[in-house]
Design a protein that fits this description.
Length: about 280
């Protein structure tokens, strides 16, 4: 059994959030190196690490990693070795398969509940900040809708309610609707969306599928603002919104933008949690 703090970490790329995560790990007594970008240096650094941490934005084709400090990094799967732990936000499927075939343990942490639930808080605060900036009314007394009732949606809906907005939650599953209603939110089945949406001042979308189509956009009041939180390309027909004169914005990556320090702490917690769940590691 290995103490997780005895592992050697390599933080590969990322932005302020990942830098904050690295410094939190270091404060916990973990040895963390960061990658510069030079290919020889990358090979040497990857070789000597026990744990590779990739950014929330994920790893693209061929191991391409976004990096704030320099150009994109390249971490080809064939640098990874047996027994290594590889924790990345998400990974290109071919790269992921190669990493696993090399005998490494791969975790795509963005889909973990601990990550998604904890990140729902900075996401909600960022979305509320955007709503305040994009409207000329207070959220207190406003009518708002949250599309979806998942991990991002519910904390947002409850914070909006805490600001004294009238909050509709639109979801497809009756269980999700019942939960929303139990929290004191106004639950509406998605297939009856126009009933809730025509009164709204702000609509927040969290559903990662085309949901705000031309028909629903037509049902919105002319002053309604759409803030789409779903990962690119979002769930809004932005062309239809523009044609109908509705303000619609896609708002990706809010935790890293509005609260990089908190988001970095969350990432460090998730990394620690993910490793301690694996057999053979202890606090
Ligand atoms: P989640 O917990 O899986 O929730 C997704 C919600 O969307 C659920 O209510 C789900 O309903 C619903 N949904 C999915 N597909 C649907 C469809 N085809 N029709 C109707 N409803 C559908 O996901 P999450 O963690 O909340 O993440 C939601 C999105 O937000 C993702 O795209 C994520 O990447 C993004 N996100 C963005 C930010 C940001 O900063 N903008 C931050 C965090 C997350 P069911 O339960 O019925 O499936």
């Amino acid at each position: 059994v290995t103490r997780w703090t005895d592992l050697r970490f390599l933080m590969c790329g990322g932005e302020k959030r990942e830098a904050e995560a690295a410094s939190r790990l270091a404060r916990w007594g973990v040895r963390v190196d960061t990658l510069g970008g030079d290919a020889t240096e990358t090979a040497r650094a990857v070789e000597s690490a026990d744990v590779l941490v990739g950014p929330v934005s994920g790893v693209g084709r061929g191991g391409t990693i976004r990096c704030r400090a320099s150009n994109n990094l390249q971490v080809p799967a064939d640098l990874v070795h047996r027994g290594q732990l590889v924790l990345v936000g998400a990974a290109d499927p071919a790269w992921a398969q190669n990493v696993r075939e090399r005998g490494a343990t791969l975790v795509e942490y963005r889909e973990r509940d601990d990550f998604a639930l904890a990140n729902a808080v900075p996401t909600a605060e960022g979305a509320i900040q955007m709503a305040m900036e994009l409207t000329d009314i207070t959220l207190h007394g406003a009518t708002v809708a949250v599309l979806g009732a998942g991990r991002t949606a519910m904390p947002l809906a409850l914070k909006l309610k805490g600001l004294s907005a009238r909050v509709f939650v639109l979801a497809r599953r009756s269980e999700a609707l019942a939960a929303a209603a139990a929290y004191g939110l106004e639950a509406i089945p998605l297939d009856r969306a126009p009933e809730g949406l025509d009164r709204c001042d702000v609509v927040f979308n969290t559903i990662p599928a085309m949901i705000l189509d031309a028909l629903l956009i037509e049902a919105l009041s002319p002053h309604c603002v759409i803030i789409d939180l779903a990962s690119a390309p979002g769930g809004t027909d932005f062309a239809a919104a523009a044609a109908a004169g509705r303000r619609a914005v896609l708002a990706p990556g809010l935790p890293g933008k509005v609260a990089p320090r908190t988001a970095g702490w969350i990432l460090a917690d998730v990394i620690r949690g993910a490793i301690l769940e694996m057999p053979g590691y202890q606090p």
